[in-house]
Amino acid sequence: MSSSLAKTLAESARSFDSTGSEVDYEPAALRIARPSAKPASGVPVLAGPARLGCRELFKSYQKGSVGIPVLQGVHFDVSDGEFVAIIGASGSGKSTLLHLLGTLDKPDAGEVLFDGNRIDNLPATSRDLLRNRHFGMIFQAYHLLPELTAFENVLAPAYIYESTLGYWAKRKQYRQRAMELLELVGLADRAKHKPSELSGGEMQRTAIARALMLKPEVLLADEPTGNLDRSTGDQVMKTLCELNEKQNLTIIMVTHDPLIAGQADRTVQIAEGRIVG
Ligand SMILES: Nc1ncnc2c1ncn2[C@@H]1O[C@H](COP(=O)(O)OP(=O)(O)OP(=O)(O)O)[C@@H](O)[C@H]1O
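Above: the input record for the complex with adenosine-5'-triphosphate. Below: its predicted structure, written as C-alpha cells.
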C-alpha cells in the first residue's frame, strides 16, 4: 500500500474521536508531496504503474422494477501523470464511470483501485477523506457557491476540510494558496467577483482552481468544456494541459467532443457499457 494512501486510511480511522466528534488533523495542502514533474520531452507517460483504475466494473440503475445496465465489465488503468479522455455517445455511461472512479458512487460489482489498493468498498468516511486528500473534481455545471466570491470559492475546500480552529491556524497559507491558484488560472483580477459576475470560462477556471486547493494527485473532470464556446473551452483545455504537463497532474476527463479528447494523451472509448477502443 502506498504510504500516502496508508496515511489517509489510518487517519480516517482516527479522525473521529470516541464520541464521534471530528478531530483536527494536519491539512492535505501541507502534506501531499507532489510527484516529480513529467520529463521535458513531453512524451506521454503511457506505461508505468497504474494510479487509478478499475476491474470488471458493473453498474445498473433501477427504474421501478426494471434494471438499466450502464456499465458491463469496464476494465482500464490510468498511469501516473497521464491525461486520459473518456469519450462515448450520450448515455453511454461516461459520467457514471467517472463517479465510480471518484468513489462518489459504488459499483454493483468489480473494483476501483487507487495506487493498487481497492477503494470502492471503503467506508463512507474513508472515501470522503480519500477524495478530499487525493482527488479533485470539476463538473460541467461548475457547482460554485453563488454567494461566495471566486477567491472564497477556491478557499472553500480548506474550510470544509479543516476544523474552525485548524483553518484559522493555517489561514494565511490557505489564503495565499487560493490567490496563487487564481493567478495560475489567470483570474487574479477576478478574485472578488461572485459567480454571477463571471463568464462561463471564468467560472470553470475558478472551479479548476478550487479543485486544486488541497493539492490533489488526480483530477476528475466531467465535461469541463461542455457549457463553453470553442474559444473559452480552448482556454480551459490549455489550463488543464499545462497542469498535466508542468505539474504532472493525472487527469481523467469525460467529453463527447473528439477535438477536446484529442488534446489528451490517450482516449478511451465507451459503448454499450464496455471499453471499445
Ligand atoms: N440516477 C440515475 N437513475 C437512473 N438512470 C440513470 C441515473 N443516472 C444515469 N442514468 C442513466 O444511465 C445512463 C448513463 O448515464 P451517464 O450520465 O453515465 O451517461 P453519459 O455517457 O455521461 O451521458 P451524457 O454524455 O449525455 O452526459 C443513461 O441512460 C442515464 O439515463
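Notes for the reader.
The domain at 80-103+123-266 is CATH 3.40.50.300 (Rossmann fold).
DSSP finds ten helices and ten strands in the chain.
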